[in-house]
Amino acid sequence: MRDAIKKDLVEEFILLASTFKWIFYGIIAGAVVGTSVGLFLKLLLMGEAFISRWHDYFLLVPFALFLSSYIVLKLAPNAAGHGTEKAIEAVHKRSGQIDMKVAPVKLFASFMTLSFGGSAGEEGPSVQIGAGVASALASLFRMRDIDRRRFVICGISAGFSAVFGTPIGAAILAIEVLYIGRISYDVLLPSLIASYVSYSISEFMGISHISTTITVPLQLDFYLLLNMIVLGILLGFLAILFIKTLHGVESFFSSRVNIYRPLKGFIGGSFLVLITFITGTRDYIGIGKDVIHRAITGSNDLGMLAFLIKTFTVSITLGSGGSGGILTPIFYIGATAGYSWGHLVQGNIELYSAVGIVAFLAAAINTPLAAIVMAIEMFGLNVGVYATIACAVSYIIVGHRSALPSQILTISKTPSIDLDNLDCELSQHKTFTVNKNGPFKFFL
Fold it and tell me: Which residues span the domain enclosing 38?
């Protein structure tokens, strides 16, 4: 009996000490990353405001992508691509170890890409900056690899929170995005602390976030639920198209276009200029937050195929060597797809646009729980009730695919499919077999 009590006391002492330790680390990560990302976002806003004063600023996109690719190539090749993917890769392969040059190089390369109209997001560089700063601090604190990994995840959480303004959803996103079918609960507390601190700092610095209250009845409307199921299915298939286009264009530029890498960026930027002239609007280039806002507020001036055009411009930007994130474009595509569906069924445009954002996020990067929480934080509980259905459906429909191929696949999404290899990166997963004795056997 005495030994059992002693064992319990020792366990609780260790857990209490660990709790206070990681609350402290979470505060440090949130404060430093929130400040760093906040400064980047303010700098980006100033750059966009200055450059957009010239009406035809987008004509400089080819030169901006050339310079962005050149800087990354010469100074920090690990800063290439969209930052969330690189941060996940660092957590899985190097226990969070990131070259200290990545953060400043990523900042400059992304500033050039986004300010001049590159079609990408601001959260990618923010997350990579957050992860890079956290990794540098971990080295300064002489952390063990296991602690460095957790601390870098806190940096990722803080980066997401500063950009999206959803502290709970950002923390869950950071611990859910690493794996498909598993959540890193051991980092939940410090991620939440880092996320709240970073969010508070971004609010203090005047960073604007996507957020609006959408009026929708809380009582269950079965016609609306049916529409959410159908919308979830459509967004799941749209996510497949998006993922295949994104990876296909990137593969084309890397393996088929055998020229000096920065010149690929110039070619990609030229395509963006051409698309802008053909469509007669700048809605499909740049970060696109204004388009997202117009969708969720029920504006009637958006193109019905905006989600398809944006899929192409994002793929061209990132595939040709531009620097930026993938999640804000995912928000854009989801919002405009929901917007088009709302017009098609003559429903609540604001509701369908909002649900489109989170359901497409759930499918494109396999994070349904984070998407549901973000729906509640951004649009209110009533929207979250319906978004839950669409998120769950789209997550299943997309299958074992992701816009982030460094995610670790840990589970099959249905007992009717046996995956030939698990606990590996999605990029390494190739084959599966149909389980004829599973729940799907009736149809086989």
Answer: 2-204
Phi and psi, residue 87, nearest 5°: -65, -40
User: Would you list the DSSP string of 347-362?
Assistant: --HHHHHHHHHHHHHH
Q: Is-contact 29 137, C-beta < 8 A? A: yes
* Distance separating alpha carbons of residues 309 and 331, to the nearest angstrom: 14
Pairing relationship of beta strands 408-409 and 424-425 according to DSSP bridges: antiparallel
CATH number at residue 101: 1.10.3080.10
- Name residues whose C-beta falls within 8 Å of residue 224's C-beta, 6 or more positions apart in sequence: 347, 386
Same-domain status, 35 and 118: yes
Separation of alpha carbons 107 and 95, rounded Å: 23
Q: pTM (2 decimals)?
A: 0.94
Cα–Cα distances in angstroms (integers) from residue 111 to residues 120, 242, 282, in the given order? 11, 24, 18
pLDDT per residue of the chain (444 residues) written in tens, 0 to 9: 777 788 888 889 999 999 999 999 999 999 999 999 999 999 998 988 888 888 889 999 999 999 999 998 888 776 666 778 888 888 888 888 887 777 788 888 889 999 999 999 998 889 988 998 999 999 999 999 999 999 999 999 999 999 999 999 999 999 999 999 899 899 999 999 999 999 999 999 988 888 787 877 766 778 888 999 999 999 999 999 999 999 999 999 988 888 999 999 999 999 999 999 999 999 999 999 999 999 999 888 899 999 999 999 999 999 998 988 999 999 999 999 999 999 999 989 999 999 999 999 999 999 999 999 999 999 988 899 899 999 999 999 999 999 998 899 988 888 888 777 787 887 776 677 777 665 555 444
Q: Contact 68/322 with Cβ under 8 angstroms?
A: yes
Secondary-structure percent of the chain, ordered helix, strand, coil, rounded to 5: 70, 5, 25
- Output the DSSP codes for 142-170: T--HHHHHHHHHHHHHHHHHHHH--HHHH
Closest CA to 246 of 332, 120, 146: 120
Same domain, residue pair 319 and 378: yes
Please check whether residue 207 is in contact with residue 162, taking contact to mean a CB–CB distance below 8 angstroms. yes
Q: Which of 140, 174, 204 is the last residue of a domain?
A: 204
Identity of the amino acid at 131: A
